[in-house]
Amino acid sequence: MIRNLFFILIMAGHIFSANGQTISGRITEPGGQPIPYSTVFVKEVSFGTAANEDGFFELHLSEGDYTFIFQCMGYQTITKKVNVSATNNVMTIILPAMVYSLKEVVVSDGGEDPAYRIMRRVIRKAPLYAGMVKSFKAEVYIRGSLNIRKISGMIKWMARDDLKESKIKEGDTYIEESVNEIEFTAPNLTRQKVKSIHSTFPGGNENRSSGAIGFISGNIYQPGAFGNARSPLAPGAFNYYKFRYEGVNTYEDVTVYKIKVIPRGDGPQYLKGDLYIIDGLWCIYSLNININEQLGMTIQLNQSFGEVREGAWLPVNNKYKIDMDLMGNAGGFLYTTSIRYNNLIVNPPDFKAIKPVKSVTISNAKPDARKVKTESKVAKLDKKSATLATIDDPTTKEAYRLANINNRKAELLRKDSLRNNHEYVELYKTVFDSNARKNDSVFWNKVRPIPLANNELKSVKAFDSLQYRNSAKTSDSTKTSRPKSKRLFNNLVWGGRYEPDTLQHFQFDGLLDPFGLSFNVVDGFVYKTGVNYERNLSKKSILTAEIKPGYAFSRNALLWDAGLGFNSKGKFKNSVNINFGSGSFDFNSTGSAASIENSVSSLFFRQNLSRLYQNDYLEIKHSIDINPELKFSTGFSIAEARLLQNESDFSFFYREQREYKPNEPDVKAYRMQNHRDLLVDFALSYKPMPYYIIKDGVRVPRRGMNMTPTFTLQWKKAIPAGSFDTDFDLVTLGVKQLIKPGHEASLEYLVETGYFLNNNTMYFDDFKHFQTQPLIVGIKNPYTVFQMGNYYRYSTDSYFAEGHLVYTTNSLLLKRLPLIRNRMWKENLTINYLYVPDYKHCIEFGYGIGNYLYNIGFYAGFEEDAFRMAGLRISLSVFSQREIVVGM
Predict the structure, then answer these.
(1) Among 62, 69, 63, 39, which residue's Cα sits nearest to residue 51?
(2) If you placed Cys at 580, which of 4, 533, 618, 661 could pair as Cys (CB 3.0 to 4.6 Å)?
(3) Cα-based distances in Å from 579 to 557, 565, 592, 612
(4) Measured between alpha carbons, how far is 101 from 249 in angstroms, rounded to an integer?
(5) Which string of b and e fits 225-259 if b means at least 16 CB within 10 Å?
(6) Alpha carbon distances (Å) from 660 to 608, 610, 652, 679
């Protein structure tokens, strides 16, 4: 678990082969102090590696003459001709401190820092460098080192058995190193063959099915290269960063500018550090970037580039350092690589060579209309870019415009190439050599290009010693482990996941589950728990079962829900579910008060929000994918609904001042009596899917590319037969869509309309209800929710039409203010519309700001063309989630 956590956090990066003679040495300052993680690049073989934290390096090359380039940010680059002979070559490299001259760049008449002129050229050219590499083969040495500085008392208590079993302790260091063959094909196809791997992580070498640390092929020129942080190389960077020119220096025939990146705010969306830019080419020579992530985490990225082909500078050494200090837990993860490029195919950008593309069809076949349209758009973009590319000193607007044109062109070509390409290709594939885990310490001492640091060396020696002792034991000795009975007992009491084997698992809420306790005035205090069971019947089918028992203390009633399910992942994705149970349900099953909202309102403010009825039910549901675009589902249910009354008068406060309201919705349309329902429903859902792949004979959507609308049609019918007395028909039609008008904005809409073909016999639980949030502070996500009405005000048994429109962006109004712009918040504008016969046109306008944990908004509502009310709404949606996922 800990191993995977740190590996997932790495964002971007890039290999090694060792044979022949050994050349080693140490890189230091003039005073003898080591220069950690300095870059060593061998020009003739396009091989880059790094020194360790003590400045030591070690390479393995064939005999011959080589050009070594030693570099580190802040120090002068040293180029040295080296003859590698049969004897061990040992060198001491001294890098003098870099002194940058400020005379090479002239400040403009307007007083603008020269860094902006340089960065405009970098931003203009970045999209071309992003697509420069077409393919390569490389040999890569990858090492990940995890150091656990501190484990909190809570983790020691909660995971004490896991920590003991895995032998994880404070102060320990764990490493994994591997020698790999990497094949990369643009834009994102990577193949990793692990030739050798050595791991001191718990279970790392024993579990042969476990993976290896991946080759991280992030492209620093792409807008998303820095995760959630905004790239200083992307259009719009001047809005988020200031740049300061800090000098120029010359390395042989290359002139390099040093540019300081200064964030205009603070937070995880910003980064800071230094960029080193090559004059003329306007590409990266090296970089040193720091990102302050949330939750006590910081990330440091160092990259050094080498001219692996004329005019093509690529990363030859990468270091990613992640440090975390959160809630008493502290540790660090260090990721380093050494790379030797082979069979490299690149297309270095040359703006002056850009010419408009002409659409030519060399075929008698009828041309694809979409392809012709794409070629026409690309030709227009090329014409625009050709004009802008001839400008030697572009303005900020011209630089942004050209970068956006090239990004748009790349996206058009990508979509055009994928529209009719449905071949499934695993984007990242890892395979292991059959002997990958069999090499000993002698082998690793010979091939390791980055010497181990002292703590890493201690970890390896301790691990190898333990492996030797274990191998000396008799073959019939067994590994002690925690008894399964103890695991099961802990899960039953505290909750958790229990896996008897690899095919099945149980998920327990636990007998002491704090989320299982709630309160309402009908049931009094209620406690519910549950257990879910899942079993893999095959690779394409899953059997599930669950039961959630509970007890209502004030009315002495047993509550329960249970279900069985079968899900097939085959061509048609069949799903069959049987659910049955007995309990108290809210009349507005769509958007009533959540259990926690009603509990807090009742216990603390003596105001009951929910109106409940008893429901005993059995339902059978079936869904099938007729094809990947068309889904069909059916349902059949029988239920008995009974009236309930308030059984509890308890609350913490306001006992003398307030009375609980009766258990009846306070609306004119309310009508209810004990009854039975016999219901059937049918639903069709259609979503066009122009971009897809075919995997195992099944069409699978390409993630994030099918921004098409989803259409739904549903018919729900109550059949009067025997003791079942309800009789109605409801037909609904809907459409929803998410649109991305920009990189940092989205537009989402939902429209639905419905009509009761007949409503001969209906009760309030069968009405059409709507998502509402009348509370000033609630837990519902505020979007597609009516804010200005109560839970039952708009419920109808006639007809309705509703619509929701939400525009979300990173910068709209308040986010432009200095105190707020640094927050990881998004702003949104909302329009909600509803038409029901009793209130005619109802419309709401709203503005909100927040994130997926909480939102604050102001809304104004109108009914029948007249103002109704306005107010503040605070959504604490974090409390509606049982899990919170934190990622970068």
Answers:
(1) 39
(2) 618
(3) 20, 9, 22, 20
(4) 7
(5) bbbebbbbbbbbbbebbebebbbbbebeeebbbbb
(6) 6, 11, 13, 34
Q: Which helix (H) or strand (E) holds 411?
A: helix 396-419
Helix (H, G, I), strand (E, B), or coil: what is residue 777?
A: strand
Nearest to 789 by CA among 701, 686, 868, 882: 868
Pairing relationship of beta strands 745-761 and 254-263 according to DSSP bridges: unpaired
Strand partners, 457: none
Instruction: In whole angstroms, give the CA distance from residue 330 to residue 768.
Output: 52
Looking at the DSSP bridge assignments, the partners of residue 850 are: 826, 855
pTM as predicted: 0.78
CA distances from 830 to 351, 430, 741, 845 (A): 44, 45, 16, 6
The single-letter DSSP state of residue 724 is B
Contact criterion met (CB below 8 Å) for 261 and 237: no
Tell me the average pLDDT of the chain. 84
167 touches 159 (CB < 8 A): no
* CA atoms of 606 and 660, how far apart (whole Å): 7
Burial 143-176 (b: 16+ CB within 10 A, else e): bbbbbbeebeeebeeebeeebeeeebeeebbbbb
Q: CA–CA separation, 24 vs 93, rounded Å?
A: 10
Torsion angle of C-alpha atoms 232, 238, 239, 241, degrees rounded to 10? 60
Please state which of the ranges 349-358, 623-632, 739-748 shows the lowest mean pLDDT. 349-358
Rounded CA-CA distance 272/243 in Å is 10
User: What is the DSSP code string of 241-298?
Assistant: EEEEEEEEEEETTEEEEEEEEEESS-STT-EEEEEEEETTTTEEEEEEEEEEETTTEE
Amino acid in the structure at residue 106 = V
Copy the structure tokens of residue 23: 């050349």
* 770 and 794 Cβ atoms separated by less than 8 Å: yes
Q: How many CB atoms lie within 10 A of CB 499?
A: 13
C-alpha distances (whole Å) from 490 to each of 159, 487, 508, 531 are 11, 5, 10, 14
In angstroms, the Cα distances linking 380 to 332, 390, 399, 814 are 49, 16, 18, 37
Comparing C-alpha atoms, which of 544, 533, 537 is closest to residue 498? 533
Please write the tens of the pLDDT for every residue from 339-382.
888 888 888 776 554 444 444 444 445 566 777 888 888 888 88
Q: Kindly report the CA angle at 70 between 68 and 71, in degrees rounded to 5?
A: 145
Task: Supply 413's token pair.
Answer: 């070509």
